[in-house]
Amino acid sequence: MLSGYSFNDLASIFVMQSFAGLILFSVFLLMALGLAIVFGQMGVINMAHGEFMILGAYTTYVCSYIFAQWMPALFGLYFFIAVILSFIVAGAVGMFLEWSLIRFLYKRPLDTLLATWGVSLILQQIFRSTFGAREVGVTLPDWMMGSWNLSETIQIPINGMIVIAITLLITIVIYGLLYKSGWGKQVRAVMQNRTMAGDVGINTERVDRFTFGLGCGVAGVAGAAFTMIGSTSPTAGQQYIVDTFLVVAFGGTESLGGTIASAFSISQARSILEFFLSGSMAQVLVLLTVIGILMLRPQGLFALKVRR
Amino acid sequence: MDTKSDNDVMNIPALGTPLLDVRGLHVAYGASEVLHGVDLKIGHGEIVVLMGRNGMGKTTLMKSLIGNLPIREGSIFLDGKQITYLPAYKRVEVGLAYVPQGRMIFPTMTVKENIETGLFVRGEKSVPENLYDIFPVLREMGSRRGGNLSGGQQQQLAIARALATRPKVLLLDEPTEGVQPSIIQEMAHTLKKIRDNSGLSIMVSEQVLSFALDIADRILVIEGGNIVHQTTKANVDVDLLTRFLSV
Question: Do A201 and B93 touch (CB under 8 A)?
Fold first, then answer.
């Protein structure tokens, strides 16, 4: 598969595909962070997580449309506003979903699987009715369009760097929230033992609602980032949910480090293999490797060593 | 069953208005009822030991008091407030604290973080120094993960976590289980010291008679989901208690 490329070509391909992998990594990581928090804390397998990402993508689309239409002077800044709005919209819808549906299903994981799958179908239809079945794409402001030429054969797109920067920022914020704040302490207590957390006076209902909202909000941000690499359609979320579950299962739900390492290795492997093989062969190879590793380490890549 | 000692109990002057007042408590798992109308009162600053063999309803009673099991019938008053239908975290707000059987430490959180989980309900920021004075080992182990402590240390951690909520009544479910004998004696001493210093009331469920006699102001015996015997420490009939506890 490597014949016909000079060493220089290969190096360039490697760097650019790695960078493309980094953008994929950003989307995976943001999706997986939300899913891991929600799954880890509540045991809720949120099949609608991909639709929350698409909700963020459509929010970004609407935002770019409004800016282009009514505030062309500020168009260069719309993406940052869109990221914040995506978080708020997806987070608010998430909190509403938790309040209206999920909280009644906490002790029935299989039912949440079905119920959230239903929610994902409902959301897809809402997207279809509102925005149409056809894909929509956002227009990027000029300053985000170009690329940075590292050498003659290596070009790094600017929008990709922005996406990665936003991902880094959000990962750091979530790490701070979970491990350095009082709220995070309550979340981790509920995650480890919901009943006991209530018994030491933690308002588990409120913690659940905010956590679910946060997970969905971060998926919304993933959606905003997603508009940079793909076009948005009502069912685009479906393609990402499987990969995201893979990332979460591979990394284990106990540590952020596991999620990050897992998202990184899966997206890089995918991106680099995809250049040389077909997309589906790359997918198969990655899947087989992950299954092999999970058979040896069922608890995921990073599990903490404690007695339970 | 033993009405004479029942009357003795009700006449204890210190009891006054009870701090915890449980009336006619019925609790069931699905169709099978486990508690058939439990009445009990705990006075201010009193240590009450609930004794009984396995499967008689000790843990069920404890769990229904803190709010982990729904109550079918009856009522619970704490400090004059009805708490029968409140979720656990609101009962903690009113002044109950609970150390469950098996301690239920948050295993991947550090010792310090474990204690801090009890602070939120009072909106406090840092662990009160006097908790570390009672359990110095917890200060030394502050950054260890809770799951990696020994049984006795975990028990101390669970009590410290419960005390961090500043309770009026502390519920302990079989605190001596899985703890070595030398530490059990120390624990009885510590619990009495906590009561003497802060004036809270303690209810302990227990099977070890020596520990119960060491710590109790009053002993209740639960059998088949009913309180069948009550006695003050002064009037305790050790033979009778032994008979209740033997299989």
Answer: yes
Contact call for residues A301 and A51 (beta carbons, < 8 A) = no
Contact present, B222 and B38 (Cβ < 8 Å): yes
Q: How many Cα atoms occupy the beta-carbon half-sphere of B200 within 13 Å?
A: 22
Rounded alpha-carbon distances, angstroms, from residue B42 to A48, B59, B199, B202, B203:
50, 17, 13, 8, 8
Average pLDDT, chain B: 88
Distance (Å, whole) CA A201 – CA A292: 42
**What are the Cα distances from residue B139, in Å, to A184, B105, B109?**
22, 16, 15
Q: Do A186 and B107 touch (CB under 8 A)?
A: no
Which pLDDT band holds residue B92 (cuts at 50, 70, 90)?
very high
User: Hey, where are the domains in chain B?
Assistant: 3-108+167-245
d(CA A43, CA A30): 19
Contact indicator for A17, A275 with CB cutoff of 8 Å: yes
Q: Which of B155, B191, B189, B160 is nearest to B174 (CA)?
A: B155
Which tokens go with A159?
A: 């929008």
Q: Tell me, what's the pLDDT at A49?
A: 93
Report the alpha-carbon distance of residue B76 to residue B49 in Å, rounded: 18
10-residue averages of pLDDT along chain A (308 residues):
72 78 86 85 85 95 90 84 94 95 84 92 94 85 74 77 88 89 90 91 92 93 87 87 85 79 86 79 84 81 61
Give B97→chain A minimum CA distance, Å.
Answer: 7
Beta strands B20-29 and B73-78: pairing type? antiparallel
Task: Report which secondary-structure segment, H or E, holds B206.
Answer: strand B201-206
The answer on pLDDT for B5 being more than 70 is no
Question: What is the C-alpha separation between A137 and A214, in angstroms, rounded?
Answer: 26
Q: How far B178 CA sits from the closest chain A CA (Å)?
A: 14
What φ, ψ does residue B100 adopt, rounded to 5°? -75, 165
- Beta-carbon separation of B100 and A182 below 8 A: no
Domain ranges of chain A: 36-234, 255-301
Q: Which residue out of B91, B108, B119 would a mutagenesis test of the A interface target, given it has the greatest number of A Cβ atoms within 10 Å?
A: B108
Per-residue pLDDT band for B172 (boundaries 50, 70, 90) equals very high
CATH architecture, range B3-108+167-245: 3-Layer(aba) Sandwich (3.40)
Q: Give dist(CA B152, CA B95) in Å, integer.
A: 25
Residue B244 near residue B56, CB atoms below 8 Å? no
Contact A248, A32 (CB under 8 A): yes
DSSP string for residues in A217-253: HHHHHHHHHHTTTS-B-TTHHHHHHHHHHHHHHHH-S
